[in-house]
Give the backbone structure.
Amino acid sequence: MNAPVDRNAPRDHEEQIFETGAGIPIEEVYGPEAIEAFEAERDLGDPGEYPFTRGPYAGMYRSRIWTRRFQVGFGSPEETNERIKYLAANGANGFVITIDLPTSYGFDSDDPLADGEVGVTGVAISTLEDMEALYAGFSPAQLSYALSIRPPVSSVTLAMLACVARRQGVDFKDVIGTQQNDPFYQMSGGPLQTITQFFPLEGTLRLCVDNIQYISNNLPRLNWMVTNGYNLRETGVNAIQDGAFTLGHAFDIFRLARQRGLDINVFPRRASFFLSASIDFFEEIAKFRAMRRLYARTMREEFSASNPECWRLRFSVQSAGNTLTTQQPRVNMVRAGVEAMAAVFGGAQSIHLCSYDEGHGLPTEESSRMALRTQQVIAYESGITKTVDPLAGSYYVESLTNRMEQEIGKKLADIGQRGGMVACIRDGWLEAEINTARIKNQHDIDSGRRVLVGVNRFQVSPEEDPPIHIHKIRADEWGERRTAMLRRYRAERDQARWAEAMSRIDAGWRNGDNMVPVLMDALENKVTMGEAHEAMRKAQQWSFR
């Protein structure tokens, strides 16, 4: 009988796997020969200048520390607003507003499909007044919110934001934040027919471009998030796939916007990306640098953009959720710190650290504060922000950046030959790529090929792992309160004005109007999120009869 394997025992040096997470081999030592084809002027340049390898802005963190963003969203808008106030008082200056599952699919909190899900995975938003409650005590020109949502619902939340600014007397040109506008971020890892069951793909793409058009013309400081690469990475794809799928999707959306007649030298200026920083430190740094360079070259050479602002890839980063463990959860603080440093060395504009308890539930105030303090130590104590792109010229980093650019470029070419990302989603290719990656990742963990501290190595007994405080979910209470609120809301509104506003949604869709102003009118006349979503869905169905 074989002796049991002690997974905590030291392993021979030869057993280590010397490659990046994406399978790129790593040499023992790197010298000048590793970057023989490297040309500093062509491939590196200066920070803030083409090809932006060293960062999108000249001064980077010497001029301004990245936005320290936090994921917030649970229960009601009022409760979420209280958490925002707490974190803002502790030094946070940006927030990712996570939406609950019913809202993310366009359903009000009192819809039968929302039962048991109200406020669980994020905040519930059904009315314009809900958005006002989220901004209570803050101005849309003062605090940066990034709404984690997609079309068609993001068109409604964009209209809500514009209405809140107007009610507060804030000039649209001063509104800041980010409207997530990726039509595919909930399509990563499932059959297309399942994920689009509540709203057709064609309508989702139309509203995506409506949002770009409205923001570009009216809200010049508001970012629109073209690609949620983070959710793609969370499915288990590697860094090369991550970069290619993210850029490939963005370029598809840019082509649709250009077909609408939007100016390639205007609308990409406020395009932004949401990316994951995973645990493979140098590979993630190289990925960010390579993506910036590829984006700049593609925008200048393929899209023929002449405005340098449209060559500049800007992105926010969240530390990886799929590297968090429920075992020994405090170790997640170390993982998040490593991933945050990779984002800083990679030149992120905004960083959100996952809290150590997120494998168990929504972050508590304590864990959120710890994640914030981690960013503050990196920003103000570590010294790594005192010079721009401190790793530039490293034989290893430049070699890996070049290799990442090549590999992402190859994958992008493959996507192009398949007809682009929309086609790859339609025919199931993306789903197949994701499933293959998931299986490989699980096999690597199960076999021990990939070490996961606390899971397949260095375990402790449950008694040795002290418990942590878990955020309490009150789904039944939240659902009951929201249902009662919406019942009153509908009973007290002017029914005639509501009906007229609903008819204008239908007419606007059929006429091909930009739907954002139409939705603003509807919201001011007490149309709810779910009602607006349903009216557009029915109008979309009519257009395909």
Confidence is low (pLDDT under 50) at residues 1-5. DSSP finds 20 helices and eight strands in the chain.
